[in-house]
Amino acid sequence: MNYKDLADLIFPNAKEIAYYEEKYPERNLPEGAVVTRFAPSPTGFVHVGGLYQALVARTVAKKTEGVFFLRVEDTDQKREVENGVTGIVNSLKDFDMAPDEGMVTEIDEIGNYGPYKQSSRKEIYEAYAKYLIEQGKAYPCFASSEELEEMRAKQEAAKIRPGYYGVWAKYRNLPVDEAIEKIKNGEDYIIRFRSPGREDRKIKHKDVIKGNVDFPENDQDIVIIKADGLPTYHFAHAVDDHLMRTTHIIRSDEWLSSVPLHLQLFQELGFKVPKYAHISPIMKNDNGNKRKLSKRKDPEAAVSYYKEEGIPTDAVKEYLLNIANSTFENWRRANPDKNIEEFDFQLNKMSVSGALFDMVKLLDIGKTVISKMTAEQVYAKSLEWAKEYDEELATLFENNKEYSLKILGIERGNAKPRKDISKWHDLKNAIIYMYDNEFLNREIQYDYAKVSRKEEIVKILNLYKEKYFHIADDKQTWFDKIKDLAEEVGFAREVKEYKKEPEKWPGHVGDISTVLRVALTGRQNTPDMYEIMQVLGKDSVIARLEKAIQNEGK
Ligand code: GLU
Fold first, then answer.
1. Which of 348, 415, 442, 508 could be bridged to 492 by S-S, CB 3.0 to 4.6 A?
2. Distance, CA of 306 to CA of 313 (rounded, Å)
């Protein structure tokens, strides 16, 4: 009896690996094209760190006219949730990052290198496990969980390195005949890799991001096929990324320490070794301590958070590129209107240590991104968001489309566009007062700032209503009239004059503007008053002034 007999007994129906090598040939791509993937487990949760990895992987593939694919790693069936694939597919779609190949729904996929879901690739893993067994590079291990537990306890007591290796690898040298007999007797087993490594030898690895790293060789006989017949991550990684012809493994740096094992697996399987790029996690400043963004503690760790808040996806992507390459910020400054796809992203320029997540900066980018949109774009995108998360806003928009477009057009499309909205969640509050129904029929808390005497407020408002307000005035005329009004009630016409001799007046033209602004909107800060009044129209302005006057009479 030899290895071949053992392999045939374990995997009688497995195909020759030549079949798969031929079925999934080298990709026919332009010189220098990079093939990358995003390979999440379908746990139903996409971490912003996962999105970050996917964005980096996709950007590099696009830049080189390569391929970016989505592979679902569902070999740990305990961790699976229903519709976990859909969640991932939709998140990528939401961010306009759909893959070139891979899963496109819970069950459908596109591309010639599939199946792209690991649980559908069982026969492929079996073929490669069989191949290893035939060569004596893998073997069945019959250790029971009690046996393994006992081994671990002994190692711990003796303070030696834990694991299944060297003298501890009990079934590594079991004669083939005995193994065959045990299998025929129906004993349970799993398949282990027979590692050729030695712990006292070093390997050198050059990571695209981390640079040169030295490790001891792997000497662990790790499990490659589990009791449920599915592969472990390590084995599936080697088989899949080889057959899918991935050129660059871009993944989280929690896997960096597995590189010696992975290099060994590629070598023993006779595969060409891909390049590795290990990405540092996104960190958070937690009261002065740097820690990983945590799924449990930080709502912003979930990609769904950005959608719920209505932070534009372009802003999130731009922010992530910002932390990915420190040169991005300068590029953006020099090219304020370019699409982020035009940025010359460099994988090897990513930072070796984890970047700090900065929500303030992200929201600031959100403001800029929204400020560059047209009123129509803001309307369409925020309505889409509102339909899911803010029914009141959605109804308001749908019932008043033309008027809403006018509101959204205020201070937009000019050289210095309005920059006060960072996410759709803020939009309603920023414009709600423009709707008469929401303003005239509600109780408003008027705070006129510097001007606080009732009679003075009423006088200013009445004068404006009766004498100075004329909806057809152009901006200059309108502004001059407010100065006239200021003068008439004894305030300084110009702020500059007032500042020179503040004791001379009770206030200046700006204070008068504030009174009008508060009366018309209920706010002390709003976009340009003239534009607001033009959008409100004559009747609304009059009605609002009357409401404010009446309020002071109460
Ligand atoms: N399924 C693995 C994970 O989610 C993939 C790691 C990789 O990209 O290779 O961590």
1. 508
2. 8
| The CATH number of domain 3-14+122-279 is 3.40.50.620 | yes
**Separation of alpha carbons 136 and 133, rounded Å:** 5
Q: Is 383 in the pocket of ligand 1 (CB under 6 A)?
A: no
Q: Are 165 and 219 in contact (CB under 8 A)?
A: yes
- What is the Å distance from ligand 1's center to 26 Cα? 23
Q: How far is the CA of 107 from the centre of ligand 1 (A)?
A: 20
CA of 237, closest atom in ligand 1: 9
Rounded to whole angstroms, what are the CA distances from 30 to 35, 61, 65?
A: 11, 12, 7
Q: For residue 50, report the distance from its CA to the centre of ligand 1, in Å.
A: 9
Distance 125 CA to ligand 1 centre (A): 17
Domain ranges of the chain: 3-14+122-279, 285-349+356-371, 375-434, 454-552
Q: Is the domain covering 285-349+356-371 a CATH 1.10.8 domain?
A: no
Pick the CATH number of 454-552 from 2.30.38.10, 1.10.10.350, 3.40.50.720, 2.30.42.10: 1.10.10.350
* Three-state DSSP class for residue 19: helix
Q: What is the DSSP letter of 468?
A: I
Amino acid making up residue 466: E
**pTM of structure:** 0.91
Q: Separation of 529 CA from ligand 1 center, angstroms?
A: 53
Three-class DSSP category at 459:
helix
Q: How far apart are CA 134 and CA 128, in angstroms?
A: 10
Q: For residue 255, give the ligand 1 atom closest to its CA.
A: 6
Q: Is 251 in the pocket of ligand 1 (CB under 6 A)?
A: yes
Q: For residue 550, how far is its CA from the centre of ligand 1 (angstroms)?
A: 65
Residue nearest to atom 1 of ligand 1 (CA): 40
**Pocket test residue of 36, 233, 244 for ligand 1, highest count of atoms within 8 A of CB:** 233
